[in-house]
Amino acid sequence: MMLSFSPETLISLDLPDGVLGFAKHYRNQGARSFVHHHQELELNFVLRGSGAYLAGAHRYDLTPGALVWLFPEQDHVLTAKSPDLEMWIAVFRPELLDFCCRTEHSRVLCAAHPDGHFRRFLSPLLAAPITRICEDILAAGSSVDRRNAGLGYLLTTAWDAYQAAGAGADQGRVHPAVQRAVQRLRGDDEGVSIPEIAREAGLSVSRLSDVFKRETGATLTEFRNQQRLERFARLYGAGERRTMLDAALEAGFGSYLQFYRVFQKEMGCAPSEHRRRRECPSKKSMRTE
């Protein structure tokens, strides 16, 4: 599945001033993942379980020992997550990259969307320091200086381990029919049926459905609904310009009832409840996955 870069999928991680990134221990809690990108470089190191990242034109299969780099102008989404998926996720602000990546071989980490495949598997010997440093960053608590120092050390250590691991087999390119279907569904899909999308992609509906599910972790209908919800969120905003009904219809939903059912299934609550939560946001920081 190819995710073409779109400025509309930019999210803010809301990092406090002076904080140059974060590291967290991710465990799959069953939350739905959406296509996004952010201005920070992202690192993922898998501890257990399995999943897959769709990042630009690449698919990165995730199993224990996999280390993946995701870049600022690279739309990505975590899919096919096993219930026991567990990994370290870290992000690094551009200022930290500029300070730490001074050599020719590390400058690629400062790029917005470099060419190539950025997943390798680490041996236990190479992996051990990454887990230790991530644990130290968490232990730093509210000490900004210790956290920033730890993030710089993590960045350089992880890149050295990645280089030492050597290039593995590239699984990056996925089925061209899936790429075409994704591009169609991410555009204006109003009035376009699944059979029409399959015909445009050059496969039967059953064949496209099988390949799409295998490579993205979602059915065609699930992916279409995710895209419509993302369009709804952009159109509705804070509710100052459009009603929910107008935004839902313009996003591609056939009726408010269809929108309501999809929204409740994907978000776990009714649209009105979600709006109330946004008006009274929690203190939790935005998650990235």
Automatic annotation (TrEMBL):
Q: Which UniProt keywords apply?
A: DNA-binding, Transcription, Transcription regulation
Please give the Gene Ontology molecular function terms for this protein. DNA-binding transcription factor activity; sequence-specific DNA binding
Stored InterPro entries: AraC-bd, AraC_XylS_family_regulators, Homeodomain-like_sf, HTH_AraC, RmlC-like_jellyroll, RmlC_Cupin_sf
Q: Which residues form the signal peptide?
A: none
* PANTHER family referenced in this protein's UniProt entry, alphabetically: ARAC SUBFAMILY (PTHR46796:SF6), HTH-TYPE TRANSCRIPTIONAL ACTIVATOR RHAS-RELATED (PTHR46796)
Sections of the chain in a coiled coil: none
A Pfam match is AraC_binding
Keyword Transcription regulation in the entry? The reply is yes
Name by which UniProt lists this protein: AraC family transcriptional regulator
Q: Which SMART domains match?
A: HTH_ARAC
